[in-house]
Specification:
Length: 225
């Protein structure tokens, strides 16, 4: 077989969107297809890593050799992520996690009536998964986040790197419809506190291979220091 440099390395990856229920038939979500996260799982497994993929609802097949855990909501993804993180060497948060959920889930379908021309939904903040992983005091994995931005990409990505205490952040400009959410291609700039690495536009499959190699290099570098 091909070279397996990541043999014995446990990698956990989140992928896809989360869904936050409004009532029994409706939800809040986003356009994440899971393609980027699944490509990362495929690339890491191909290099021999022991890969767990924590996946929101997507229409993709489980990559060969990867352990998949299906979740729906941000809170479920949080619980599963914290369980996996403590025995992971590397944790990559590629999921598009809903920042907010509905405060009071309606038990029955919300009805349209003659007197409600408008409807106000109250939202509450979801836990920040990647920040919680990065804040672990014991057995903290090398933690890699993503930043999906529509403006000031570098500035906002660096802010997230620092605020969430990540080892690396992978910034993508999602204002371009050819990149980011539910597209075949992507382009990423990876930031650490001391360096940046530009990975230009290409298929998510090719980008994921380059990104996994870069993440592994940085992880090894960190271990030595
Ligand atoms: O799935 P695809 O269609 O292939 O699209 C790929 C992608 C655009 C979704 C992906 O490349 C990407 O950018 N993923 C992160 C999307 C996102 O939610 O970014 P953010 O900037 O809002 O979040 C920053 C980081 O915090 C992310 O690592 C996110 O997983 C994490 N987060 C956010 C909120 C939250 N409550 N918990 C988190 O862990």
């Amino acid at each position: 077989p091909a070279q397996q440099p990541l043999q014995g390395v446990k990698v956990t990856i989140t992928a896809g969107p989360t869904r936050e229920a409004i009532d029994p038939v409706r939800y809040i979500s986003n356009h994440s297809s899971g393609k980027m996260g699944y490509a990362l799982a495929t690339a890491a497994a191909a290099l021999g890593a022991d890969v767990t993929l924590i996946s929101g609802p997507v229409q993709l097949a489980t990559p060969t050799g990867v352990t998949r855990i299906d979740v729906t909501t941000a809170e479920q993804m949080y619980v599963s992520s914290m369980q996996q993180a403590s025995n992971s060497d590397i944790f990559i948060g590629c999921a598009a996690v809903a920042d907010f959920r509905v405060a009071a889930l309606a038990s029955q379908k919300i009805k349209k009536t003659a007197d409600n021309d408008g409807l106000t939904l109250q939202l509450v903040k979801n836990p920040d998964i990647i920040a919680s992983v990065a804040a672990m005091s014991a057995q903290r994995p090398f933690t890699v986040g993503f930043a999906a931005e529509t403006e000031k990409v570098a500035e906002y990505a660096r802010q997230k790197l620092q605020k969430k205490n990540l080892n690396l952040i992978c910034a993508n400009d999602v204002s371009d419809p050819a990149l980011g959410f539910n597209s075949e291609q992507n382009a990423i700039t990876v930031y650490s506190t001391t360096a940046e690495f530009a990975l230009g536009q290409r298929s998510k499959t090719d980008l994921a291979q380059a990104l996994i190699s870069l993440i592994y290099e940085q992880y090894q570098h960190e271990k030595k220091h």
